[in-house]
Amino acid sequence: SSDVCSSDLRTDGRRSMTLFRWSGGTWSAVDAPAPPSGATESALQSISCPSATSCRAVGSVEVAGKTRAMIVRWNGTDWKAMAVPQPSLAASSALLDISCVAASNCTTVGLSCKTATTCGPQTGTGARRGLVMRWNGSSWAIVPSPAPTGAAGVEVSGISCPTSTMCLAVG
After folding, report:
1. For the chain (length 171 residues), average pLDDT per consecutive 10?
2. pLDDT for 77
3. Distance spanning both ends of the chain, measured CA to CA
């Protein structure tokens, strides 16, 4: 079987996370983990499953007007939210893609912004930064992100890791 994630647009215009499972012939909805208390919006952007009992999905959740990176995991039975480090000095962050070569080796990418308004069009050097995190089997850690010299803003939007020591990213 396969899992896929998506974001549903609710009738109030906000997004909520949705997960689906392919069972060889049909798609069926899978219960997503409950968003954090006070969340007004949540969205999943990408999923990676190195096995049928280990998946990670990434996206963002909005709580108290702030967007924060979010990661959920599948253990073969149900989905649960994971503890995610938030970038220092960032008003908001979001994860856009993930690649897992094993249950203990995943890399996810996205962006962090100094203010809520800098996640729109770039307004100054360093206002928008790439965000990269690695999973070592027990915790997520923020690692240095690629950034072109002189870039007004960076967003790392895609990643593929064919091995545990090699990843390619785009943005």
Report:
1. 47 61 81 77 88 90 85 88 87 92 95 70 62 95 82 82 92 80
2. 84
3. 30
Give the DSSP letter string of 106-150.
EEEEEEEESSGGGGSS--STTSEEEEEEEE-SS-EEEE-----TT
Region of 116 on the Ramachandran plot (φ > 0 left; ψ -120 to 50 alpha; else beta): alpha
DSSP single-letter state for residue 13: S
Look up tokens 């070569």; give the residue.
101
pLDDT value of residue 40: 80
Taking alpha carbons only, the member of 3, 151, 163 closest to residue 78 is 3
Closest CA to 71 of 87, 82, 61: 82
